[in-house]
């Protein structure tokens, strides 16, 4: 199975996920992780951990991010990579 998490700043991840669902229909394999202005490191780490726990069971995880190589994308991708090292991973 494939999972697609959208990560980014503000409402963009949710908007990207909703756009995909409008075109392709509802899909339980889509995830949105938003970094809000009021989020501190701990709050954002909790959001990433919640999604990461769900992603570890997928064979392929393709991450869509608003900024490539930024801290949040790297944190999520490194965390997923450690848990599914023997499986396919794309950023």
Would you spell out the secondary-structure blueprint of this structure?
Layout: E1 2-9, H1 12-24, E2 30-35, H2 41-55, E3 60-62, E4 64-65, H3 71-83, E5 88-90
Parallel strand pairs: 1-2, 1-3, 1-4, 3-5
Helix pairs in contact: 2-3
Write structural notes for this entry:
This protein has 91 residues and is α/β, with parallel strands linked by helices. The chain has three helices and five strands. Strands 1, 2, 3, 4 and 5 form a five-stranded parallel sheet that branches. The longest helix has 15 residues. The radius of gyration is 12 Å and the shape is globular.
Throw out a few tags for this protein.
alpha/beta; disordered C terminus; 5 strands; five-stranded parallel sheet; globular; single chain; 91 residues; 24% strand
What structural class results from the helix and strand content? alpha/beta
Major beta sheet, specifics?
5 strands, parallel
Order of helices and strands: EHEHEEHE
Radius of gyration using CA atoms only = 12 Å
Q: Which spans of ≥5 residues are poorly predicted at pLDDT below 50?
A: 81-89
User: What's the quaternary structure here?
Assistant: single chain
Number of E-type strands = 5
How far from one another are the termini?
A: 16 Å
How many DSSP helices? Answer: 3
Strand content: 15-25%
The backbone outline, from C-alpha atoms, is globular
Mean pLDDT: 79
Summarize the amount of helix as a percent range: 40-55%
């Amino acid at each position: 199975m494939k999972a697609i998490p959208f990560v980014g700043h503000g409402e963009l991840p949710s908007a990207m996920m909703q756009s995909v669902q409008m075109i392709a229909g509802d899909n339980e394999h889509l995830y949105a992780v938003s970094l809000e202005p009021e989020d501190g490191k701990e709050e954002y780490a909790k959001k990433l951990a919640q999604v990461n726990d769900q992603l570890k069971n997928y064979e392929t995880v393709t991450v869509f991010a608003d900024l490539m190589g930024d801290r949040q994308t790297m944190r999520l991708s490194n965390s997923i990579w450690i848990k599914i090292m023997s499986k396919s991973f794309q950023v």
